[in-house]
Amino acid sequence: MAKEEVKVPSVGESVTEVTLGTLIAPSGAFVKEDASLCELESDKASVEVPAPVSGVITYTKKEGDTLAVGETFAIIDTEGKGEEVKQVKEPVQKKEPKKEETPVSFKGGIREFLDEHISNVQQEVEIKTPKVVEEVKSETPQDSYRKKMPKIRSVIAKKLVQVKNETAMLTTFNEVDMSAVMRIRGAKKDGFLKKHGVKLTFMPFFMKAATQALMEFDEVNAYIDGNEIVYNNNVHMGIAVSTKKGLVVPVIKKIDQMSMAQMSKAMTDLALKGRDGKLQISDMSGGTFTITNGGVFGSMLSTPILNPPQSAILGLHNIVERAVVVDGKVEVRPIMYLALSYDHRIIDGKDSVQFLVRIKELIEDPALFILGD
Q1: What is the pLDDT of residue 88?
Q2: Pairing mode of beta strands 30-31, 46-50
Q3: Distance of CA 179 to the CA centre of its chain
Q4: Measured between alpha carbons, how far is 151 from 41 in angstroms, rounded to an integer?
Q5: pLDDT tens digits, residue range 231-267?
Q6: What's the pLDDT at 209?
Q7: Bridge partners of 326?
Q8: How far apart are CA 266 and CA 252, in angstroms?
Q9: Do the beta carbons of residue 237 and residue 207 sit within 8 Å?
Q10: Nearest of 286, 259, 290 to residue 372 by alpha carbon
């Protein structure tokens, strides 16, 4: 019998261990070469492991086990034949037909009826009550259940607490009139989709505006490393993406050298990889600044948490029509609240406010930055 060991692959330079996640192909199943066997969860992302050869898979480890890089966790019998895995369906319970109720008779007068039937009801209650209580106890569902926290969720939890404890995090707010961006998007979106193959959303406008602002405010694009401040010559922008297993932040490298069309394509590609669990460690490393958009879920206002070691994060929110004063007149405009959380150890309050005001100016007058499309 020829056997092939399946070992934990290297998933990044700094990753030494992973957690065995969902088993896509269960033990005893026949798998073809390159078919997905299971998911391995690291502190950065989840990756699918392909079968090195065709055969019957047998796992030597179970879901939730912590594995070292290079460790064997499954064996494939290349000469074996797997059995078809059938889903067992629970039998459908038939409902018993309702019993017909005997019509109430009032012969003999109301008093005689009450005397007779109250006695019968008391006897029925004494007989049936214990059974009813027993049935209720047996049918009561459990209040809770336990499940091991995925590795990625565990690391996210630790990092969030670490940020709160190790940074002087503050948040400043502003509001932006989205009228100009909405007009441009409305006029350009069809041609943009036809030309570039991706939709023109609001996000690239903020990515472009934030990139220009970051080039003007060096501290916002920098981070603290021990007793030193590291200044970045380029902008590597992280875009927060919500997945089933948690929030991940893929990074668009050197976004300051991109047009809006290139930004849109890069963002779409990373979002799809995040949704499908295909992100690699290299996709989420090296970020210098992050944008998170809670508005897609309906958030009106929030205080986003820093993504270490970065020193700032921009939070976008939903767009709501509000009454605002424009040139002395009250007008209804589409308004979005912006939030910038920052590390006060490196960014002064004045700089954080001016940085956010700069983004507001660029969004309200997009002619101030080049669309490039």
Answers
A1: 33
A2: unpaired
A3: 29
A4: 6
A5: 999 999 999 887 776 778 899 999 999 999 999 999 9
A6: 96
A7: 329
A8: 7
A9: yes
A10: 259
Rounded Cα gap, residues 372 and 164, in angstroms: 39
Cα dihedral: 361, 364, 369, 373 (round 10) = 160
Helix (H) or strand (E) holding 177: strand 169-177
pLDDT the model gives residue 275: 77
Around Cβ 257, how many Cβ atoms within 10 Å?
10
Cα–Cα distance for residue pair 204/219, rounded to 1 Å:
22
| Positions marked catalytic | 344, 348
Rounded distance, CA 250 to CA 267, Å? 9
For residue 53, the cross-strand partners are none
- Please count the other Cβ atoms lying within 10 Å of the Cβ belonging to residue 163: 18
Q: Taking the model in full, what pTM does it have?
A: 0.67
User: At a CB cut-off of 8 Å and minimum separation 6, what does 271 contact?
Assistant: 239, 241, 250
**CA 92 vs CA 88, 157, 258, 289, 332: distances in Å:** 12, 42, 58, 54, 57
The Cα–Cα gap between 194 and 183 comes to 18
Helix axes 179-196, 349-364, angle to 10 degrees: 70
Asked whether 310 and 291 are in contact (CB, 8 A), the reply is no
